[in-house]
């Protein structure tokens, strides 16, 4: 399995510009820019040499004043909602219920670590897919779905290839850059996210959290991407690109430091409502 999952930054989607450009001063002015990032995880069997690397990895983007912004959610928004499509997560109803419980537990852990207020909004039948995934999510800011690449109806183009077959999971986000008015500094914030998990590899991941190669760790890894974390070379970290067998699951010190950097400890972003409602 790949030690290092692929990284893709689709400079995709809308440059949803024109709408507000003629607005009067102090009204929302500048263009928004939508960028998607997607990163992958694979299941792994063993640990190789642990390279010493940065404790965490975040993405920064250049702003119009020459500064750079760390790409993250506004931790001060009232909620960051997510929906779950677990229909392919397990063959039995009880198994699917357990998968949903794992998703909710993983988001709760990520919320505790980052302060980003994840809130479960219910189930969905949707599979995030295609270049416009961020504009089509089903009544939530994040959709988590198990997918099967064998059939067109259950496939997602967002699940990236691994070195052999498909990645076990891919998580990503979409962010926008805006200004609050003419002459105001630009800001950046994530506003949408997705996680797609390969149902064909369900058996590679032990349900729950704890020891082994767990589904819990896979979910924590992908939620880390949704929050803005990238991969690190330190194999102790959950953000190592391969989900490794462990004696216990959960974010490690480097992951936790990264989540603090992305979360409520770094203050609010005060994203105006129009940034994500404008198309
Ligand atoms: Zn990853």
Protein model, in words:
- This protein has 279 residues and is an alpha/beta fold.
- The chain has a single domain, classed as Collagenase (Catalytic Domain) (3-Layer(aba) Sandwich).
- It has helices at 93-114, 215-227, 253-262, 274-277, and strands at residues 7-10, 33-43, 60-62, 68-70, 80-85, 118-123, 142-147, 169-179, 186-198, 242-243.
- The strands form 2 sheets. Strands 1, 2, 5, 6, 7, 8, 9 and 10 form an 8-stranded mixed beta sheet that branches. It has a two-stranded antiparallel ribbon with strand order 3-4.
- α1 (93-114) links the parallel β5 (80-85) and β6.
- α1 crosses α2.
- The structure holds zinc ion (ZN).
Strand and helix layout:
Layout: E1 7-10, E2 33-43, E3 60-62, E4 68-70, E5 80-85, H1 93-114, E6 118-123, E7 142-147, E8 169-179, E9 186-198, H2 215-227, E10 242-243, H3 253-262, H4 274-277
Bound molecules: zinc ion (ZN).
Global shape: globular
Secondary-structure element pattern, one letter each:
EEEEEHEEEEHEHH
Total number of beta strands: 10
Computed structural class: alpha/beta
The domain tally reads 1
Question: Mean of residue pLDDT?
Answer: 83
Heteromolecules bound: zinc ion
Helix coverage percent of residues? 10-25%
Relevant CATH superfamily: Collagenase (Catalytic Domain)
How many strands, what sense, and barrel or not for the largest sheet? 8 strands, mixed
């Amino acid at each position: 399995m790949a030690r290092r999952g692929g990284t893709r930054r689709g400079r995709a989607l809308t440059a949803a510009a024109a709408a507000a450009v003629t607005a009067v001063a102090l009204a929302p002015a500048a263009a928004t820019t939508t960028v998607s990032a997607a990163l992958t995880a694979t299941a792994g069997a063993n640990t190789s040499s642990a390279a010493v690397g940065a404790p965490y990895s975040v993405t920064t983007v250049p702003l119009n004043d020459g500064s750079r912004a760390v790409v993250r959610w506004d931790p001060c928004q009232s909620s960051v909602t997510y929906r779950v499509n677990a229909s392919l997560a397990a063959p039995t109803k009880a198994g699917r219920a357990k998968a949903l419980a794992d998703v909710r537990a993983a988001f709760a852990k990520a919320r505790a670590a980052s302060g980003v207020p994840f809130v479960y909004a219910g189930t969905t039948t949707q599979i995030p897919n295609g270049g416009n995934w961020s504009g089509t999510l089903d009544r939530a800011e994040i959709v988590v779905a198990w997918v099967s690449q064998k059939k067109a109806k259950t496939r997602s183009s967002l699940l990236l290839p691994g070195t052999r077959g498909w990645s076990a999971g891919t998580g990503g986000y979409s962010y926008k850059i805006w200004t609050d008015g003419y002459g105001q500094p630009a800001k950046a914030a994530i506003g949408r996210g997705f996680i797609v998990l390969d149902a064909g590899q369900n058996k590679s991941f032990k349900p729950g959290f704890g020891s082994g190669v767990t589904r819990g760790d896979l979910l924590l890894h992908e939620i880390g991407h949704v929050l803005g974390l990238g991969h690190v070379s330190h194999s102790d970290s959950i953000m190592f690109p391969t989900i490794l067998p462990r004696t216990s699951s959960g974010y490690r010190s480097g992951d936790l430091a990264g989540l603090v950097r992305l979360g409520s400890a770094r203050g609010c972003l005060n994203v105006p409502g129009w940034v994500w409602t404008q198309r």
